[in-house]
Amino acid sequence: MSAPLPDPRDRLIVALDLASVGAAESVVARLGDTVSFYKIGYELGFAGGLGFARELIGDGKKVFIDFKLHDIGNTVARGVASLAALGASFATVHAYPQTMRAAMEGKGASPLRILAVTVLTSYDDADLDEAGYRGDVASTVARRVALAREIGIDGIVCAPTDAASVRAALGAKGAIVTPGVRPDGAAAGDQKRIATPFAAIRAGADHLVVGRPIVASPDPAAAARAVQAEIARALATS
Ligand SMILES: O=C(O)c1cc(=O)[nH]c(=O)n1[C@@H]1O[C@H](COP(=O)(O)O)[C@@H](O)[C@H]1O
């Protein structure tokens, strides 16, 4: 059976990569009802962001905690249990078998969905080679998705340029979440494997993670609405 389709508004996840809770509160206030799903990673998480996550959840928003866990199984399972108790909707782990198994065990019966990060969107073949991996990006992503599927992971984080092959390998069950999304003309920054919101959805992504093109925009709400309009256009032509 395939996973239920996400609510259209939940397809855009805004990465609150900001240095303080005050800065995050101000962006969230400007985005208002436009955005329903937020991601909190290292920068905000290590600056009081977990308390802010609780507030967002209390206000009816969905929260993705992105700490990309990778440690011994016991530590991962217990960390994930704490994220489940927080009420997070998504959490990331690196796509190593012990780590993925521990995370799936740690979430217990909670609705938290565990996403396995395959190969970071800032990596290309040369970066993997430099880090000592034998395979290129495509073969490493394929291997990790196969392992994740075997373990029964809830979802995959991958580049939008990998989404079509990931969907084919993952099957219909399992969410595909793609960062590395750049509207036409937006600066890539440190991202190497990117696509537009339209292309990412057409390639099979369920959720798009967008940070700087929205939070660093002079008008974050207009930037978010533009991404949502592209998502809607891509869904209408799928
Ligand atoms: O797990 C993630 O969300 C993630 C995985 C990945 O491969 N690449 C990636 O960029 N991300 C996150 O997605 C967000 C992208 O932000 P922008 O590049 O500003 O849109 C950041 O918060 C990253 O931490």
UniProtKB/TrEMBL annotation:
HAMAP family: OMPdecase_type1_B (MF_01200_B). Catalyzes the decarboxylation of orotidine 5'-monophosphate (OMP) to uridine 5'-monophosphate (UMP). This is Orotidine 5'-phosphate decarboxylase. PROSITE patterns: OMPDECASE. NCBIfam families: PRK00230.1, pyrF. Homodimer. Its EC number is 4.1.1.23. It is an enzyme of class 4 (lyase). Transmembrane segments: none annotated. Pathway: Pyrimidine metabolism; UMP biosynthesis via de novo pathway; UMP from orotate: step 2/2. InterPro entries: Aldolase_TIM, OMPdecase, OMPdecase_AS, OMPdecase_bac, OMPdeCOase_dom, RibuloseP-bd_barrel. Residues 11-227 form the Orotidine 5'-phosphate decarboxylase domain. The active site is at K68 (proton donor). Keywords: Decarboxylase, Lyase, Pyrimidine biosynthesis. It catalyses: orotidine 5'-phosphate + H(+) = UMP + CO2.
